[in-house]
Amino acid sequence: MRGKLSIEKPWQRWAIRFGVFIAMVILVVPGAWVVLTAFRPNIEVLARPAVWIPQHLTLNNFLGIFGLLSTQQGLPVGSYFVNSLVISITSTVIAIALGMMGGYAFARYRFRGKATLFLGFMLSRTVPGVALSLPLFIIWARLGLIDTSFGLIVVYLAVNIPFTIWLTDGFFRQIPVDLSEAAQIDGCTRWQAFWKVEFPLARSGLASAAIFAFLTSWNEYALASQLTRTTASKTMPVGLMDFTAQFTVDWTGMSAMAVLIIIPALVLTFVVQKHLIAGLTFGGVKG
Amino acid sequence: MSFWRSPRATPYLLLLPAIIVILGVVLVPLLVSFWTSFTGYNLTKPATLFQFVGLRNYQRLLGNDDFWWAFGRTIVFITITLNLEMVLGLGLALLVNKITWGQRTLRTIMMFPMMFSPILVGFQFKYLFNDAVGLINNALFDLGLISQPIPWLVDGALANFSIIVAEIWMSTSVFAILLLAGLMALPKEPIEAARVDGCNPWQVFRHITLPFLMPFVYIAMTIRSLDVARAYDMVRIMTNGGPAGRTELLWTLMTRVGYQNSQMGMANAMGYVSIILSIVFTFYFYRKLVGARTFMGGAQ
């Protein structure tokens, strides 16, 4: 199809390829450079003139940030990592459950105040995290929730629920009502019809919503930086700032930590891609 | 009581937990923040939470140069980055759309910046732009283009430039991916018809492709204006508003006033300005989106 439409000359085709190549280099090189730095010894990174081709690769930067090297004072990166995982996973699971209930209500029922409620949920998303952190800091301090995982989990619920409602509302709308009605005629209760018919069909959509929610919590900084204090609840993005002192920055240590933050995000984004394709195909099934 | 047992109550019951969370974590704090912005609340003196000062915080803000600089810089920052991201994203989408081989791989690479936490993007560019060990200065140096290191993050104007580059790197993909989806959904017939009628490629783009893409542009703009404040994380790690306040945005100024100077009343007043700013931008693009959709109504 496309071949028929395009009437490009060979030099134009090469110009397009070159443009795409440059764009991809710009998108990849900054991240790749950080990943490479994470595996290089500090001396090589600081060397003048610059050493372009890595002479030595080492895992010491990773051992160092976990405090496994005797020469270096370790940071509690292990606890940050665990905190990040616990907080992100817990808030994601609860946000998906509550958001799915809300999304189902919006997709399947007519009720008074529906439009207003929907707008309200979406408006709550426009409040910048920094601006919200100020009053939350005051209230959380009075409630004793500062520096607790629980406090941060509750905050991330509120961050993720509106988006989950918006996504699941869309997914449930795509599933024809006839399917669950047929199941109910066949003797299912509405509850059974939901779990046996609608939930399995919406599953890949829910999975991508869950991954968005997880990534949002995993990457969040503005709120976490004010609501956490110590290893009890500090997350990875907040911990990254431990490496910057007034005048010195531990580039290799920070790069190693950056790699630890990227890996889960990278893995999950590849998963989400698969699910997005699955979501598209189940959109085709219904027709 | 009977209402809550009737089927009419089901949607409300389903929504109840979500409503409670939003009330507790967003709405109540916003009310507290609203009240606080009318008090002289200082973090170090808890009693001042009930010291009502009327509009004094807002009056002081309006007469404060630092605030106006940060506010103006934030508006300019949002305007420049959103526009450049749109243009670059459109360009990238058009280029990738022309490539017939390996398009899925290209799309995966385009999603790359989207998985980065803004704080990581900030760190990454703080490293690349570092005057002593950064990739950019090293490259310019070894290519013989400069003999003195360029102080990317130390000079005011260059620091603003670096932050804009980082922001564009982070968010151009949002536009590129959405616009690429739009290009793929573009119907072929009108284009072929226009070609037959003798339109040149520019006319086809201007009068067929671009109008068709506008709803996608506005979706991307709406999504982006929802999370413009992500730039806070990035600026926080790159320059933290420095050198000497030359890269101070509304969001960094707010945290400085609130947490470092403990002037919570003042900071919350600024918080409200930033919330209104976000809502205005989001609402503007959302209206445009709805408008573009009705305009497209006949076609879809």
Overall 3D shape of chain A: globular
Structural class of chain A: mainly alpha
Radius of gyration of chain B: 24 Å
User: Architecture of the largest domain in chain B, according to CATH?
Assistant: Orthogonal Bundle
Please name the CATH architecture of the largest domain in chain A: Orthogonal Bundle
Helix content of chain A: over 70%
Strand proportion of chain B, as a percent range, falls in: under 5%
Instruction: Specify the number of helices of chain A.
Output: 13
Total of helices of chain B: 13
Spell out the helices and strands of chain A N to C: HHHHHHHHHHHHH
State the CATH superfamily name of the largest domain in chain A.
Answer: MetI-like
CATH superfamily of the largest domain in chain B: MetI-like
Q: Which class best fits the helix and strand makeup of chain B? A: mainly alpha
Report the mean per-residue pLDDT of chain A as an integer: 85
Q: How many domains of chain A?
A: 2
**Count of distinct structural domains of chain B:** 2
Sheet with the most strands of chain B? none
What value does the average pLDDT of chain B take? Answer: 88
Question: How many β-strands of chain A, per DSSP?
Answer: 0
Q: Can you tell me the CATH topology of the largest domain in chain A?
A: MetI-like fold
